[in-house]
């Protein structure tokens, strides 16, 4: 492994979606063989820093180097950062340790540590870059969009890129077959009060962002979304994650998976962008447990044994904490 690929790299920013996109770019450069045998992925708050560093110290198998990823590094405790500091003084010669973090302050001990002894990549978008970014999200889905529609989305949802991503997805799905998406196609689907969609809610839950998921849940219920529909949307998404994982483990490629999941061309982008990274966070047992939790909550609400708001927040909290 070249010397530039060793040590510790911190990817951080204030937009979770940009941090995750940057990590995906790096992972796309890892060979399939290394991904199978020389890549370990951990999550702060779920895994111990000692296990992460032990993986980093492990010799690569049949390769020049190995890769270790720790997501959500902003959740590391002060003692964890201190332990990490000892590792950065003498990092493994044949490993690249990649940390991702969201919302770090400039004074954060983790950021100061890696600035001194590793490499830091901050990812961000200036406000004037967001319209071009919105257009690129439509283009990725094979859809054309007018400048008026882009401006409306930006005004309605501000700089919350994950909310914009969900709105783009919803707009494309609802307007399949339209030659060019215009303002009239967007306005009925996205409210100027920065209304959050169910699409974004299920994504937040699947990536373990329970704080934002609960905020979205409360906004959606205040807007009149029914508990039954929200539970249905969560169940459908976790069933899709389980099916995707099963098909991948059978060795099936994405075109075959898309066909078996009956996805339209406009939906197929979700395989690589959403289902693959989200499914990687869970093992099969975790996904089956997620579906069991949703069934129990639904039965509790229907029987009157559980308040709707309590049941939904309990489900989201439980799903966000499930093991990888």
TrEMBL record:
GO terms for molecular function: DNA binding; DNA-directed DNA polymerase activity. It is an enzyme of class 2 (transferase). GO terms for biological process: DNA-templated DNA replication. It catalyses: DNA(n) + a 2'-deoxyribonucleoside 5'-triphosphate = DNA(n+1) + diphosphate. Pfam families: DNA_pol3_delta, DNA_pol3_delta_C. SUPFAM superfamilies: P-loop containing nucleoside triphosphate hydrolases, post-AAA+ oligomerization domain-like. Its EC number is 2.7.7.7. Residues 195-318 form the DNA polymerase III delta subunit-like C-terminal domain. One of its GO terms (cellular component) is DNA polymerase III complex. Keywords: DNA replication, DNA-directed DNA polymerase, Nucleotidyltransferase, Transferase. Residues 10-123 form the DNA polymerase III delta N-terminal domain. Belongs to the DNA polymerase HolA subunit family. This is DNA polymerase III subunit delta.
């Amino acid at each position: 492994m070249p010397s530039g690929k060793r040590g510790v790299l911190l990817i951080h920013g204030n937009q979770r979606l940009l941090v995750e996109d940057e990590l995906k770019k790096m992972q796309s450069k890892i060979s399939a063989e290394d991904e199978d045998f020389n890549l370990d992925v951990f999550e702060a708050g779920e895994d111990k820093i000692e296990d992460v560093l032990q993986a980093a110290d492990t010799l690569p198998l049949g390769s020049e180097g190995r890769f270790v990823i720790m997501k959500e590094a902003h959740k590391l405790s002060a003692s964890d950062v201190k332990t990490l500091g000892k590792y950065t003084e003498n990092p493994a010669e044949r490993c690249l340790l990649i940390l991702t973090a969201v919302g770090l302050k400039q004074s954060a001990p983790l950021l100061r540590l890696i600035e001194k002894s590793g490499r830091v990549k901050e990812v961000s978008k200036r406000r004037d870059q967001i319209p071009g970014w919105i257009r690129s999200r439509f283009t990725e889905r094979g859809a054309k969009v007018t400048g008026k529609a882009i401006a409306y989305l930006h005004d309605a949802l501000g700089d919350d890129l994950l909310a914009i991503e969900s709105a783009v997805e919803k707009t494309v799905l609802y307007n399949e077959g339209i030659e060019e998406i215009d303002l009239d196609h967007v306005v009925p689907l996205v409210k100027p009060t920065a209304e959050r969609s169910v699409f974004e809610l299920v994504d937040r839950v699947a990536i373990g962002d329970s704080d934002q998921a609960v905020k979205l849940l409360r906004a959606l219920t205040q807007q009149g979304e029914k508990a039954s529909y929200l539970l249905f949307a969560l169940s459908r998404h976790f069933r899709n994650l389980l099916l995707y994982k099963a098909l991948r483990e059978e060795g099936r490629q994405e075109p075959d998976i898309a066909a078996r999941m009956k996805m339209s061309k406009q939906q197929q982008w979700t395989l690589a962008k959403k289902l693959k990274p989200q499914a990687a966070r869970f093992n099969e047992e975790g996904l089956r447990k997620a579906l069991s939790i949703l069934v129990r909550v639904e039965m509790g609400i229907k029987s009157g044994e559980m308040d709707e708001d309590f049941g939904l927040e309990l489900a989201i909290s439980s799903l966000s904490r499930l093991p990888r």
